Amino acid sequence: MHTFVVVGNSLEVLGPVLQAIRSFSRASIKVVGNDTTRSIRWSLMCSQWKYATLQMNDDDHLLQTLHHICTKNSSSCIIAADCDAAHALNRLRSQLHVPLAPTPSAEQLALFEDKWHFHQFCQQQELPTPSTCYFQNKKQLDFSTLATTLGIPFVIKPTNRAGSEGVKIISSAAELEKAILHNANYQFTPLLAQKYIAGKDIDISLLAVDGHVKVVAVQQVSGSVIEFLSEPTLEVMASTLCKSSSYEGVMHIDARIDELSGKIYLIESNPRYWASLSAALWCGVNFVQESLKYISITHSHENTNRLVGARAYTRYPLLRPGGLRCLALDRGLRGRLVRLSVIDPWKISRLILGISKQLLRHVRTTLPRIKQH
Q1: Whole-number mean pLDDT of the chain?
Q2: pTM score, two decimals?
């Protein structure tokens, strides 16, 4: 039986990737990651979990772990779920003796993972991005200069973090001082200051092989609903980025639509799988399965697979419209996804943890108002 070896340090990405694999295959899934991923071993989707930091000083251990898994399972392939995995597997690529799903090279990761490099690359390709300034550390930030250059409000964010970590929207000098300059916990470096684009978020997810986009999905989020729509302008931008870099692998690009002009600005990119991967899966497009088609071929002239005119929900599957019906009656993809969510102890624990965090945030925001009264 085939074995999938999924490598990564991000639970937010590993979970959807495993779900995508399990939706089309009952094969064994082995997970390799650091201590933060240890809980996934309790998932029904995970056949085995192995520890590895994925850092350069642990490459020998990672290589031994992969060889051990793949020697025992002759029909194996390796999938990089996140950027930590892609960096590690690039360092070991020449020593791997089993297929590796399309994965961005070290050079491509450098272009698309770092927000400043991404901004510079977009400028080189004459693609629209917000006005942006680079700073080595927060001591170099001056409100008056930034307000004059970028307007108010503006955005401060690290160049090398994901998941909105360290992102602050600044509207005043006092806010800059409190949130960043005098905040001992804000120690991110380097930093970007970027013009704030008032408008709506719009994202594009894609799979590219040798610079050619094979699968694409443009999405917008409204509350708990994710809409997949047609946006040719954003598709052209993404295709330009892929062609000019000969990009290989999956990528998720964040963009904004200016509320006044309607112009689309590219904000940042993530050269890896993404947390909302399951939304496309729910609508019938499996980015993981699609990527596996290109393990042994570098290019084909197939038409691009586009996900358009579909809708998914971010709520727990049983709370989605038609969730109970899917659980009881649907014998297809959606029914399998709902049933997996209901019986998987790891997914249930993640749901409980998410609800607990929401309640805690609600209590923290409510208490100050209660004290004032």
Answers
A1: 92
A2: 0.92
